[in-house]
Design goal:
The complex is a heterotetramer. Chain A is of the alpha/beta class. Helices cover about 35% and strands about 15% of the residues of chain A. In chain D, about 40% of the residues lie in helices and about 25% in strands. The chains are: A alpha/beta, B mainly alpha, C mainly alpha, D alpha/beta.
Chain lengths: ~425, ~325, ~300, ~240
């Protein structure tokens, strides 16, 4: 009796399996997809994957809202060539597994035209390896990571970087520190993974050695034991300048622990961990920021004299109500801006191929809020290539040193660090890119 | 037919038949479903390994994700360093994970319920961080895993997803067939005896420590296979591919399937694959608030887990079966 | 020298937080023979409750009181609604693992609900007393008034709970219900109510842990506050090191874990905390499976 | 003040363990329930103290319905149950095991007095009062279990196989104590025993169970004299 029953169960399982696979009775598709997927005469569908939940999400989870706000602004003015842009957001909680699944859904289920602003080095690598937007010819625009490899067209044919690489950042920091803090005792506190190691390589190229190196495991800053030990070590070593290459929650933990031990070195934060909103959200009171320095490639979010910042602030108030304007909003809107610029440059007959070609040929002349030029070419998909340095005041507002943006540029190789002479092109009328 | 299933040959024929149906189905659906099918097959293998451990030998593991990680990394390292054929890599994943399971199982056999649960929990948290200690493990970014293109003989239009699906489904069928055989063997009976009453089993001459260690070893080997399949379906291995939540969802899948019944394994696997879609549909109706969209899948799975444990603790399959047995018994009286 | 003193202080003060979590796990274990993995979620929920009371009364201490009382209430409710049913349906092969699995489900449920209702909202708990360390001959120690409060809270809890458990009738009823519910019942103990009380005490201890640790860290509270899941794992390891049975053991286990972690991180490598904790756990289990304070007693099933 | 059981049935799944059992035990009597292994003796006793749900029938003590009350409630009605196999908690000390039985009694000095009287009956328990129950011998554990039940000041004592696993000499000693206690404290006792002879020797009445049914009920003396009972249960 039970045996019959078991057989029925097995059959039921098989039916269930078959059924679940055949939920959509669409016949098998040919692998080559037609280029106009995700585009109609009136619409363009884009997708993004990033951490909306989990330990890495604070700050970053404001990016899609900012991008949508800018797209809404463009749509309200008629869209790009009559097409309105929509953005599908997928949470990956910063795990590559989820990124792959989410990207698959974006491409196969939501059928997006392109992926824009996907976040995370490991995440983008996994997506590139498996979903392989490159082979499918799907544009993977302006990834949200500083891994230098994504700029290499041979490895990632449809992926475009936007941010300067971590190597560039470390090289520029090396120059800056040697110049401004000669003879001081230096320490480097860094996340012991590829992110931190990329930076180590950059500091080596930049010729800067630290007196003290403190690596730590990613996310371990949340254990009560870890952050105080950093500070004890730094104090014991008598470090006067501490460079921190980690995420914002690590910056928060370090600043908090230093405060508790009355330790006040010159802090210099890497651009990733220098996001004041995220750090404040992590519990560090604004006055602790006084004198902390960081590097950035976009204008300071509080700089209302900047035409882009001013426009983005207005858009944020109107289309993203209730959300404080900060680094992440600025970065998100800028990514959306560059995307619109690229779509406009691809022309009326919008195809994936045309879009990629447009960025490769016209990318270096794109308008954007960035204070350094973008550097895409037919062989390299690099984005911005430089940084300026700023200091936080007692209200956690970042201001450029000496009141002016002094931008330094370099490359991810052995190239020198030079003071940039780049003049940012004027913002297109009403912040609506055309050509 | 059911007599057929009780013989080894019969089960073999049945699984071949099942495989045939599945492969036919694989040709009929689009790429997304095929990809989900591969994930489904991975879950089937992973959940089976937990059912074997918890349902058949009474041990709880909250850290099976760590064993999946061992399998995944083994397969990837074998592939990347020695460029071995893919099936050899999978075999290596099974063997390495089983070896790790044997070591762990020896320790586990000395531990009772809560200690074992906690130790495996700590393992799931602790083990992936090893990857950050050794550069050959690829750190936080992990290592790429390329199982290679499908054979030319399958045609130019044969997509990699379908290839993954074929591999995963075959692996799942082989694993299930083998597990069905093993739980009906002497070992299976020994494990059930130990689970039922450890002292009585010992009195009956069963070395309960050995039996538990063996169960842990076999379960770990199967988990290793699941890890290799997971690495294949996401194309990489990295510490973040094996988070604590993976271990928890596998356990959830096992409970939904009914921890004591291998045939129910499909229920758990389908639930795990379908939950994100269902929750997406629900959150669409609720107006797509970001907080709801991102938290709903976890919430649904947890609620389902609690409901099952409260209402049908031995799983839906076992519940139906025992209802049937009771009904038959009352008739016979 | 100062580094050494710092390490000891860091170890003991962070260990005190692990001890708090271990105490709440031990309390549930002692009253119902269940490891409550939902404890981290409950602590997070209680801390959110405390946070909203800070908004209402503008006083950390009043909020702490409410967090503890309501945390105990939530915990008692969970026992009544979920655990009681599970114990009654104590049949079948899953009986041994069902409570553990149910607590995991509860963890996910609480976490998901907090995520939906509190996700993305800024929540910060400022320390009620200074968290700047005391200064001795120009050197600021890692010991601050806040850390002293935490350490005293742990010692107070340990001593008062130990007293309750060993010297009072309630404590006797708690222990008897855990060891043998049937005999306790036959002796006239209202086992259901006593178990609920055990859970309530644990909920209170967990709430205290959450309310004290949050300002001790960065003060930020989010549904993903990693501290809570980490606390669970480290708290559990501390409880097991101590033997799961003993409150004194839980505190010793927590302090030991804190010290070992601090010394390894300070003098060996800051990348090893989780492996260290895991190896310590494994070592204790292999050498002394019953824990430091545990005793071997013939246990019926 | 009588224990009245009528038409009681208990099912274990498809098996009927107790089948229409009726009996009446007067106050102050020691009743021995005897029968072969599996006759339903323990099930009957567990049903009386609310540990096992019943299918049909009634049971009352002093007008209280026994069947739908929780065990912890029954203690408050004066019903104490000592379950099979030395029911003590090994992790607690001897004194704690005893105190457990009187926890629900508000009057601490009265409980202390009861404890003193139990120590007089079982002096071994006083000698070992601070030791863990785990360290006691089988006989001492049985004494402790009975002592714990007495701490509740019961009027009806339900004893399940107190002789299980004990040496003959110890059995004799325990049974003598049970007889003494019954007489001295005016207890009503239901003693379930496999060791039929020893039980009947101290009992006032005897009830023989067979396959869940009452096979015979009579005064203990008559049962011992009954050749049929002798052949079936007393072994000679």
């Amino acid at each position: 009796m039970i045996g019959t029953y078991r057989r029925k169960l097995l059959v039921a399982s098989a039916v269930l399996a078959t059924g679940s696979l055949a939920l959509t009775a669409i016949p098998a598709q040919a692998f080559s997809v037609r280029n106009e997927i995700g585009v109609t005469s009136t619409s363009i569908k884009l997708g993004i994957t990033l951490p909306m939940t989990g330990a890495a999400s604070p700050g970053y989870n404001k990016i899609p809202g900012a991008m949508k706000a800018y797209f809404d602004y463009v749509n309200a003015s008629g869209g790009v060539n009559g097409r309105k842009i929509s953005l599908v957001v997928k949470d990956d909680a910063y795990t590559p597994t989820a990124s792959v699944q989410a990207t698959n859904e974006l491409i196969l289920k939501d059928k997006v035209f392109a992926v824009v602003g996907a976040l995370g080095t490991a995440n983008n690598k996994a997506v590139a390896a498996l979903v392989n937007p490159g082979r499918r010819g799907i544009p993977d625009l302006f990834v949200n990571t500083g891994f230098s490899g994504f700029a290499v067209k041979k490895s990632y044919p449809t992926t475009f970087s936007l941010f300067p690489s971590y190597v560039m950042e470390a090289k520029i920091l090396s120059m800056y520190i040697k110049d401004k803090f000669p003879g001081k005792k230096l320490a480097l506190l860094y996340q012991a993974d590829d992110f931190g190691r990329d930076a180590l390589a950059g500091f080596k190229t930049g010729g800067l050695t630290f007196d003290t190196y403190i690596p730590y495991a990613p996310l371990s800053q949340a254990t009560p034991t870890v952050p105080p030990t950093w500070i004890s070590k730094l104090q014991a070593a008598g470090s006067e300048v501490v460079v921190l290459f980690g995420v914002s929650s690590a910056t928060a933990a370090a600043l908090g622990a230093a405060y508790a031990k009355s330790y006040r070195p010159q802090w210099i934060l890497g651009s990733v961990g220098g996001d004041a909103t995220a750090i404040k959200l992590a519990g560090v009171p604004a006055p602790l920021f006084t004198g902390v320095q960081t590097a950035s490639f976009l204008p300071a979010p509080a700089d209302a004299t900047d035409e882009y910042v001013k426009l983005f602030q207005t858009i944020n108030t109107k289309y993203n109500p209730g959300v404080t304007f900060d680094n992440n909003i600025l970065a998100g809107m800028n990514t959306a801006f560059v995307t619109v610029q690229a779509i406009a440059a691809a022309g009326k007959n919008l195809t994936r191929k045309a879009l990629i070609a447009a960025i490769e040929t016209k990318g270096s002349t794109f308008a954007s809020a960035g204070l350094t030029p973008m550097a895409p070419t037919a062989t390299s998909h690099a984005g911005y290539n430089g940084y300026w340095f700023g200091t936080y005041d007692g209200t956690a507002t970042l201001k450029p040193n000496d009141g002016v943006y002094t931008v330094y540029t370099t490359d991810s190789g052995a190239g020198a660090v030079v003071k940039s002479t780049y003049k940012r092109p004027a913002m297109p009328a009403n912040g609506l890119p055309t050509n | 037919m059911h007599k057929l299933l009780h013989s080894n040959f019969g089960r073999f024929v049945f699984f071949i038949f099942l495989g045939f149906i599945i492969f036919l189905a694989g040709n009929r659906v689009d790429e997304l479903r095929v990809y989900q099918g591969a994930t489904l097959a991975m879950f089937v293998v992973a959940i089976s390994s937990i059912i074997l451990l918890t349902g058949y030998s009474g041990q709880v593991s909250l850290g099976h994700g760590a064993l999946l990680a061992i399998g995944g990394y083994s397969a990837v390292l074998a592939r990347n360093y020695w460029t071995l054929p893919i099936w050899v890599c999978f075999a290596i994943a099974v063997l390495v994970a089983a070896a790790a399971g044997a070591v762990l199982g020896t320790a586990a056999a000395r531990l009772s319920g809560p200690y074992l649960a906690g130790t495996t929990l700590a393992l799931a948290v602790g083990l992936p961080s090893i990857a950050n200690q050794f550069s050959f493990l690829g750190g936080e970014q992990g290592l790429l895993f390329d199982v290679g293109a499908p054979p030319i003989s399958l045609g130019a239009d044969f997509s990699p997803y379908k290839w993954y699906f074929w591999i995963a489904a075959s692996a799942a069928l082989i694993a299930l067939w083998w597990l069905q055989n093993i739980v009906r063997s002497r070992y299976g009976r020994t494990w059930r005896a130990v689970r039922g009453n450890e002292i009585a089993a010992q009195l009956a001459g069963i070395h309960s420590g050995k039996a538990k260690t063996l169960a842990f070893t076999v379960s770990s080997g199967v988990a290793g296979l699941a890890g290799a399949l997971l690495a294949m379906t996401i194309g990489t291995v990295s510490p973040s591919a094996f988070p604590l939540t993976l271990s928890f969802s596998l356990l959830t899948g096992a409970v939904l399937s009914g921890v004591t019944t291998l045939p129910g394994v499909m229920i758990g696997a389908v639930t795990l694959v379908a939950t994100p879609e269902i929750s997406h549909a629900i959150s669409n109706r609720l107006g797509n608030s970001e907080a709801v969209t991102t938290n709903l899948p976890g919430l649904l799975v947890s609620a389902l887990l609690i409901l099952v444990v409260m209402l049908v603790p031995n799983g839906p399959v076992e519940q139906m079966r025992s209802m049937r047995v009771r009904k038959n018994a009352s008739i016979s009286r | 020298m100062f580094t050494f003193i710092d390490t000891v202080i860091i170890g003991l003060t962070s260990g005190a937080v692990y001890s708090l979590m271990a105490i709440s796990l031990v309390l549930v274990w002692r009253s119902t023979r269940v490891i409550n993995f939902a404890q981290a979620g409950q602590a997070l929920l209680s801390t959110y409750i405390g946070y909203s009371f800070i908004g209402l009364f503008d006083s950390y201490w009043i909020a702490l009181f409410f967090a503890i009382v309501l945390g105990a209430g939530v915990s008692a409710l969970i026992e009544i609604l979920f655990m009681r049913t599970l114990f009654k349906r104590n049949t079948g092969p899953i009986a041994g693992v069902a409570p553990i699995i149910a607590t995991l489900g509860l963890l996910g449920l609480i976490h998901g609900l907090i995520g939906i209702f509190m996700g993305g909202k800024e929540a910060i708990i400022r320390p009620p007393v200074s968290n700047v360390g005391y200064t001795i001959s120009g050197h600021t120690l890692a010991l601050s008034p806040l850390k002293l409060v935490i350490v005293s809270a742990v010692l107070f809890l340990m001593i008062s709970l130990s007293f309750i458990f060993t010297k009072t009738n309630i404590g006797l009823a708690l222990r008897a219900s855990a060891y043998s519910p049937e005999i306790a019942r036959l002796a006239g103990v209202k086992v259901d109510a006593i178990r609920t009380l055990g859970w309530a005490l644990a909920g209170a201890a967990g709430a205290a842990a959450g309310m004290l640790q949050t300002p001790n860290g960065t003060g930020a509270l989010s549904p993903d506050s990693l501290e809570f899941s980490l606390l669970l794992v480290l708290g559990f390891i501390a409880a097991v090191i101590g033997g799961l049975e003993s409150l004194v053991g839980a505190v010793i286990g927590g302090l030991l874990l804190g010290l070992v972690l601090a010394f390894v991180i300070m003098y060996v490598s800051a990348t090893l905390p989780f492996m260290t904790a895991f190896l310590l756990l494994l070592g204790v289990l292999l050498v002394r499976p019953q824990g430091i304070m545990g005793r071997k007693v013939g246990r019926r099933a | 003040m009588t224990l009245i059981v009528s038409d009681l049935c208990v099912d274990h799944g498809a098996i009927r363990a107790v089948d229409h059992v009726s009996m009446k035990i007067e106050q102050g009597q020691l009743a021995a329930v005897i029968g072969a292994n599996g006759a339903g003796k323990t099930t009957l006793l567990r049903a009386l103290s609310g540990l096992t749900p019943t299918t049909s029938g009634t049971a009352s003590w002093q007008g209280h319905n026994l069947l739908h009350a929780k065990p912890e409630k029954l203690v408050r009605f004066g019903v104490s149950h000592v379950s099979e196999g030395k029911s003590v908690i090994p992790e607690l000390s001897v004194e704690e095991n005893l105190n457990l039985g009187a926890l629900w009694r508000r009057n601490a000095s009265e409980a202390k007095e009861t404890r003193q009287r139990i120590f007089e009956t079982f002096p071994r328990l006083e000698e070992r009062s601070t030791q863990l129950a785990d360290t006691l011998s089988g006989g001492e554990r049985q004494m402790l279990a009975i002592g714990r039940a007495l701490m509740a000041k019961p009027q009806l004592l339900l004893l399940d196989e107190p002789s299980l696993g004990l040496a003959p000499l110890v059995i004799a000693q325990i049974f003598q104590s049970i007889r003494d206690l019954t007489t001295r404290m005016g207890l009503t006792v239901v003693l379930v025993e496999q060791n039929a002879m020893s039980a009947l020797e101290i009992a006032d009445v005897g009830i023989v169970l067979n396959l869940g049914r009452v096979a015979a009920t009579n005064s203990a003396q008559s049962l011992i004299a009954d050749p049929q009972v002798r052949a079936a249960y007393l072994g000679y």
